[in-house]
Amino acid sequence: MGSSSGSSAARGRTQALPSITRLRAAFHGRVISPADADYDAARTVFYGGFDLKPAVIVRAADATDVAGAIALARETGLDLAVRSGGHSSAGHSVCDGGIVIDLSAMRELVLDVEGHTAWAQSGLTAGEFGLAADMHNLITGFGDTASVGIGGLTLGGGIGYLVRKFGLTIDDLLAAEIVTADGQILQVNDASHPDLFWAIRGGGGNFGVVTRFQFRLHDLGPVLGGMLMLPATPDVIRAFIAEADAAPDELSTIANILPAPAIPLVPEAYHGRPIVMGMMLYAGPAEDGERVIAPFRALVPPILDTVRPIRYSEIFEPEDPSHHPIATGHSLFIDAVDDDMAGAIIDYLETSAATMAVAQLRVLGGAMARVPVEATAFAHRQRRILANLAALYQHPEEAGVHREWAERFAATLGGAPGVYVNFLGLEGEGRVREAYPGPTWDRLQAIKTRYDPTNLFHFNQNIPPAASET
Questions:
Q1: pLDDT digits (tens, 9 = 90+) for 438-455
Q2: Which of 223, 328, 363, 402 has its CA 20 to 30 A from that of 285?
Q3: Cross-strand partners of 254
């Protein structure tokens, strides 16, 4: 892959060299080429399975820089990737032989504490935003991983620790600044370009490059949060999900079911045995949260219990920036977990040959489900549970084996219609259509045709304009 990738980068750069030279002259940020010492670091993304070599990386400083990079893509015809935090499950944060718009230097955050709003540039991470807002007892819900960029997370919907209390991230999106395929810098909201504003709330990066977001901020003081580690049996898994579904909206959970890793956190007696690592966050007073979490603790004596009063920003686990996992998987919605399904989950995890195999179950509902389906481009508000079946492994050549395992696993679970686009890998147009079923696809495609008729923004979970659809 390295040789082919390197050739693609060289060909793309040769093709684009005159245009790149013109771009440098007017650029406020940095233009990084394969000759630069930090090129390899700049092209590295979170997932280690994507070793791609773009012709040029444009690290934008502002929306004008972004417009210049989009013009470069129009002039050269090269693929255009857009990177916020670099966590795309499909590897869309970097491309081979093309142009990468890197937003990571655009990290300005302006908090209006009294007005309960914030303007945030797209290069910010969920952790950075959360920490800054939390200092004022304010918050917007962003995922569950500190290093994820707010750009892609927001455009796909945004499911995290506050999804039941405050809804999806897009439910708190008030406005945005976006650069479209023709280089216009637009301010969009419910009154200005409302069709485009609707589309970017769930429709991904198909319609332009969002450079700034305006979010609603919610009051939130100390919370109750942490991890509850339990032995995983079919009965425990089923009951955990049932309790999470019955809990008040203040509680959001992520149940990670896996063979216990041999790490100091896990008692040696449990190494290799199935466990539930239940991440818990109660967005309210600790004494109320203790009552809500008590039934989970009563399911079985916990192996480990770190649930305690914390600041919201403390729920994000520490990360190793040098860790770049190689992973594959399958995401789906399910509506319930009974003993048979719970047993199948344990069985499939035990048959995996991966270094680590995980089934992650997130109970949804609450505030997310109370927003009308047609209000945004996120079409899965009535789904009850989001499941991710993942295999982490060491060598890229193993991918096929683990992908086949994940697909068989998903087929066994069955599931409800649809898929969450932010957890979608390179799985083809059929799966993208599952993310945007029926009228949602039709409406998004009409908006795509209006704002990007040539499909300049195609290096994504693509919704092609009507004229280019085959």
A1: 999 999 999 999 999 999
A2: 363
A3: 279, 362
Q: Which two tokens stand for residue 280?
A: 């818990």
DSSP string of 57-78, one letter each residue: EEE-SSHHHHHHHHHHHHHH--
**Tens digits of per-residue pLDDT, 137-163?**
999 999 999 999 999 999 999 999 999
* Distance (Å, whole) CA 61 – CA 226: 37
- CATH number for the domain formed by residue range(s) 223-423: 3.40.462.20
Rounded Cα distance between 276 and 430, Å, is 32
Residue 6 identity = G
Instruction: State phi, psi for 385 to the nearest 5 degrees.
Output: -140, 135
Topology (CATH) of 2-102: 3.30.43
Query: What integer best gives the mean pLDDT of the chain?
Result: 96
Work out the average pLDDT over 268-273: 96
Torsion sign (Cα): 370, 371, 373, 374? positive
Distance of alpha carbon 206 from alpha carbon 452, whole angstroms: 8
Pairwise CA distance, residues 346 & 233, whole Å: 8
Dihedrals φ, ψ of 58, to 5°? -105, 110
Q: Mean pLDDT over residues 101-111, rounded? A: 99
DSSP letters, 142-162, are --S-TTSBHHHHHHH---STT
Instruction: Please state the rounded mean pLDDT for residues 416-431.
Output: 96
pLDDT exceeds cutoff 80 at 347? yes
| Residue of 297, 307, 279 whose CA lies nearest to 162 | 279
Q: What pLDDT score does 8 carry?
A: 66
CA nearest neighbour of 330 among 452, 413, 251, 250:
413
Q: Are 373 and 304 in contact (CB under 8 A)?
A: no
Task: Tell me whether domains 2-102 and 223-423 share a fold.
Answer: no
Domain ranges of the chain: 2-102, 109-219+444-451, 223-423
| 0.70 exceeded by pTM | yes
pLDDT at position 470 over 90: no
Contact between 100 and 56 (Cβ < 8 Å)? yes
**Quick one: pLDDT at residue 2?**
42
